[in-house]
Design brief:
- Strands 2-8-7-6-5-3-4 form a seven-stranded mixed β-sheet, sandwiched between helices.
- It folds into two domains: 233 residues, Type I PLP-dependent aspartate aminotransferase-like (Major domain) (Aspartate Aminotransferase, domain 2), CATH 3.40.640.10; 90 residues, Alpha-Beta Complex (Aspartate Aminotransferase, domain 1).
- It is an alpha/beta fold.
- It has 14 helices and 13 strands.
- It binds ligand TLP.
- Ligand TLP binds next to helix 3.
Length: 340
């Protein structure tokens, strides 16, 4: 089975497993786990922030951002297809008691003028704008890189109005690898950043949230309230450290594989590529084959290929380090046979 459903499916490498075995641990709720402290300090340093917190997942990191930045009754501005809006079970509303207000972006990038226009004036009828969220790379837009200049412009607006910016950088390392913009440059355009260790970087579990020391102190309490205060968690922080320090450079291979896949699928009758492939995601439209995404996925599955539906006639393929160039060639050959 060639599994292109997501880069979340990667299995920990031998080195990660060994590091888990060797991990020095302590009780992290007492901030006594040396492996966690090492990971958090490294992450904060790499992103140019004062502090960092190891959290269980990207969703938990994003929710902690909403809970820490906002008060109940606030409004959060975010892109119309943001993960926080589409795929987190409305947890921002359920947990932080905030309402989302979406702005339709272009390849995941919101127009800074529209962001500014959506900021609420001081009026008893209105919610307060508690947070602006940017997603980079943008998942639903097919792994699109949100340009640094766009982030700079939005952050400029946000600072003018005193509103915190949170970056959902689940795949920020993909953006950096593909664009050549360093991770700390992206991180400098937001007050807080969440990034996933368990996607393209290949760790088995975990995300990091970074920000000011004061923000992280409050975030730590929210993590505890959410049940995310873990104990001898160095056993998963050590694989995360390897993900952070050793796995980012190879992401360009995933991007090359995604481009190769998109280029070849585009030549096949009935299939069209919906996205400009910036990173490791390819969105394929199946309408020309007269099939829904689900029908096409069934056929793929029978051919030992897994992907996910991303719309009624859209299938998402994600490349990652457990999928080799040979696997991509196999996928191309098998789909080519179907298309004949
Ligand atoms: N995305 C998953 C699914 O939830 C769709 C995937 O397979 O792509 N932000 C972004 C931009 C994400 O893509 C994801 C996961 C998250 C946050 C949440 O991360 P986790 O899964 O660790 O909670």
């Amino acid at each position: 089975m060639i599994d292109l459903r997501s880069d979340t499916v990667t299995k920990p490498t031998l080195r990660m497993r060994q590091a888990a075995f060797d991990a020095e641990v302590g009780d992290d709720v007492y901030t006594e786990d040396p492996s966690v402290i090492k990971l958090e300090e490294k992450a904060a340093g790499m992103l140019g922030k004062e502090a960092a917190l190891f959290v269980t997942s990207g969703t938990q990191g994003n929710q902690i951002a909403a809970l820490t930045h906002c008060n109940t009754g606030d409004e959060v501005l975010l892109e119309a297809d943001a993960h926080l809006f589409l795929y987190e079970g409305a947890s921002m509303s359920a947990l932080a008691g905030v309402q989302p207000r979406t702005i339709q972006g272009n390849r995941g990038a919101m127009d800074p003028k529209e962001v500014e226009a959506a900021i609420r004036p001081d009026d008893i009828h209105f919610p307060e704008t508690g947070m602006i969220c940017i997603e980079n790379t943008h998942n639903k837009a097919g792994g699109a890189i949100v340009p640094l200049e766009n982030m700079q412009a939005i952050y400029g607006v946000a600072r003018e109005y005193g509103i915190p910016v949170h970056l959902d950088g689940a795949r920020l390392f993909n953006a950096a690898a593909a664009s050549g913009v360093s991770i700390d440059h992206y991180a400098a355009q937001a007050d807080t950043v969440q990034f996933c260790l368990s996607k393209g970087l290949g760790a088995p579990v975990g995300s990091i949230i970074t920000g000011s020391a004061d923000f992280i102190r409050k975030a730590r309490k929210w993590r505890k309230r959410l049940g995310g205060g873990l104990r001898q968690v160095g056993v998963i922080a050590e694989p995360g450290y390897i993900a952070l320090t050793e796995m980012a450079d190879r992401l360009v291979e995933d991007h090359e594989n995604a481009k190769a896949l998109a280029d070849r699928l585009a030549e096949m009758p009935g299939l069209t590529i919906e996205n400009q492939v910036d990173t490791n995601i390819v969105l394929v439209n199946t309408a020309g084959r007269g099939e829904t995404a689900e029908e096409f996925l069934e056929i793929l599955k029978k051919n030992d290929i897994l992907a996910v539906p991303f719309g009624p006639e859209t299938v998402r393929f994600v490349t990652h380090f457990d999928v080799s160039r040979e696997d991509i060639q196999t996928v191309i050959d098998r789909i080519h046979r179907l298309a004949l």
